[in-house]
Each structure stands twice: as C-alpha cells, then as structure tokens.
Amino acid sequence: MKPRKKTRKIFVGGTPIGGKHPVVVQSMTKTDTADVRTTVKQIRSLESSGCEIIRLAVPDANAAGSLGKIKEGITIPMIADIHFDWRLALEAIRQGVDGLRINPGNIGSLWKIKEVVTAAGDKGIPIRIGVNAGSLENDLLKKYGHPAPEALVESAGRHIGILEKLNFTGIKVSLKASDVVTTVQAYRLFSKKYDYPLHIGISEAGPPSQGIIKSSVGLGILLSEGIGDTIRVSLTAPPEEEIRVAYTILGSLGLRKRGVNLISCPTCGRCRIDLRELVGKVEKKIKNIDKPLTIAVMGCVVNGPGEAREADIGIAGGKGRGILFRKGEIIKRVNENQLLNELLREIERL
User: What is the mean pLDDT of residues 227-243?
Assistant: First the structure.
C-alpha cells in the first residue's frame, strides 16, 4: 500500500474531502428527484447504510425545485448532478445544495459559466468536474481515436482551466469509464499532473455479479496506490448495495472500518455441514450490525479456529456438533443446530 496522495482540501457541506482526510463513501439516488417523499425515503435508508454524501440527478426545473424540500428531510450533504443547463445549476444553488456536478465547458457561453461559478463561490459550494468516456468532446475522440486515458485527462484539464481562469479552485474531479484499465490509467495520469481531490469509480459497472468485481479490481488498484478521496460503486442494484460494497473494498485495504467483516471457508471434502446455508443465515442476521467485528463461519472443526484465529468470534461445524471460538481459542462445544444461536448470543455480548 502506498500512502495517500495529499490533495487539496475542499468541503461538501460539513464533510472534508482531500487533504488526507478519510475516503468518503457516496452514492446516487435512483428515484425521480421531483418525487420528494420517495427520494427522501431512499436517502434516509442510505444514511443508515453509511452513505456520507448523496448525489441527485437534476434533469429539469421540477427536479431542481424539489431540492430544498429534500434537503430539509436528510442529514448528509447533497450534490446536484446537472448537464448543460446553467439555469438548473443556479436554481440548485438557491435551493441550498452542498455541491454541484457540472462540466463548465458544457453549459454554453462564458457569461453563463461566470454566473454559476460566482453563485457557487459566494455559497462556498464546490464543483465536481465529471469526465466520462461515453461523452468526450468530438475533437478529442478524433485526436485519440477512442476514449483513451489521455483523452479523459485532457478533457478534465480543459474544464479545470475554465474554472481556474475565473479564480475558482473548489474543484473535485472524476474520470470514469466502464473499462477498468482505461479508468485506472486515466486516474494515474491525472494524479501525477494535478493535486485536486479525486472522486473515483467505474462507470456503468453493471449488475452485482460483474459490477462488484470490476469495481473491486479498479478501485482497489487506485486506493492501494494512494489515489482517491471519495468513492462510489456504480451498480445496477439498490443503492444500499453500493454502500455495502464500497465499505467492503475500503475495509479490505484497511482504509475504513464499518460493520462486520464476515469470513468463511470455501468448503472442501472435510466439510460435513451445509455451510452455504449457514453463512447465508449469518449474513442476514448481521447485516445491520455497525460494530467493527470480524466474524468467522468455518466448515471444519479441525482447521477452522486456526485459519480464522484473528476473528473476534467464530463458529466451525462438524457432523452433528460444532464449536464456538474467540481469537482462535475454543470457548464452547454445541450441537450443530445451535451454532447460529450461540454465535448471535456471543455477538451481542461483544
């Protein structure tokens, strides 16, 4: 693991980003932003899951006009995601958002950009420049032949240049592609050239079966190299799943600790219990526990405690019997059908 790169520090609401502050976990609502009640409900669920910043799509005036009411019902900072229309950005600022995701080069004349930048600066609102491989400028696609990493970095540089000429430096940047290698290389190139904080993610990563793998590989590489100040795992799944996976990635690298780290063996010929069923039951029971615990569910009483000796608490099954252990030491022998209950009781005591 390389040390975190020290980037410039900005604030989204009261949340510090960059400057070696902890990596912040964020997500995006998957509701109609104009539907205040449904949107607030989803954000509150995400807050409970550990989401620290929420981004909302603002495609039209109805969505923009709903932002203030939504903000009243939530506690985490809120970012408005806007494309092309400078008027929506101004309305979002009036509604009290904590950040904008808008590419200045895409909103028209310089006077329009100035209005947005001035309003954002007056309120202390940062702007995220979000470069996406799927929407690069045509001249860059012609120059590089495809959405190359260099093209993403050059696009970001253009947008940064516009803001810097207006003396605005409250900037965060993302350079996303659905291709893992392209994304990783783009962030590496950008990180060498600039010190603005980075929001990292793999765009359109897909359903959980594929998206979790792509995100874990790509974000894991970047984070292990000290790159990344905020993180979003983009999945075709409920947004709460994005938060769970994000914390799992961060936890596996020792960058953040939240909730339970569940470890279990893959099973082998020594296993004499239905471990998959048992692990599934344990996973459901512990999903809302926010204690930073490591829990082990092993299929072999011979090697289980030794292989999971660092676990705070664990169980290992045998034919008809099993054991409860703590930090590798056996503390109780129980019948197989009591393993789950004994584990849950011990977790409550911890």
Answer: 95
